[in-house]
């Protein structure tokens, strides 16, 4: 994979200075990552995001004043800000997870994750990918449809109007992606190469004007496509 010509620029948002200091130490221990700013609440995060244009924002959920979820919604909706948002929380709460995804966050990580996991998450988001594990995707599925993911039926053609601009193969890829399959699993299912699947996923996101596969999953269930 081609290395980035410039370092990954990160903005840290947390109301505890000691937490921000810890994250800064972890991230800047990795060559190619630089912390360009810090904020202690959601309003400051929005201001800093507009001023610093970071690649990735590590966003706390619960903060005094404007919370991280609301700040994320504002940041993602602002066309002048192209930052990916990684939500960080000490609580494994599904309401936080689903709200964060619906507001446009590109990843969700617990604060007690390993330093390596934090570094990897920032690198993943900086590449333009989403940090959404199969387990998390299936939790989203169960939340939206109210039953286990394995029982979700393939939608009828009449329900696929939002996918009209996709080719037949892109539609296949999209529906598998929405079920929580990884690129490798999609490739195995369709008997094609990983590079081919990655190309199809990129085209699907572009045509549907979606930032990443997280939004693709939410899009699919909000439109009752699966």
TrEMBL record:
SUPFAM superfamilies: C-terminal effector domain of the bipartite response regulators, CheY-like. The keyword Transit peptide does not apply. Keywords: DNA-binding, Phosphoprotein, Transcription, Transcription regulation. The modification 4-aspartylphosphate is found at residue 60. GO terms for molecular function: DNA binding. Coiled coil: none annotated. Pfam families: GerE, Response_reg. Residues 159-224 form the HTH luxR-type domain. Gene3D superfamilies: 3.40.50.2300. GO terms for biological process: phosphorelay signal transduction system; regulation of DNA-templated transcription. Residues 9-126 form the Response regulatory domain. SMART domains: HTH_LUXR, REC. PANTHER family: TRANSCRIPTIONAL REGULATORY PROTEIN NARL-RELATED (PTHR43214:SF24), TWO-COMPONENT RESPONSE REGULATOR (PTHR43214). This is Response regulator transcription factor.
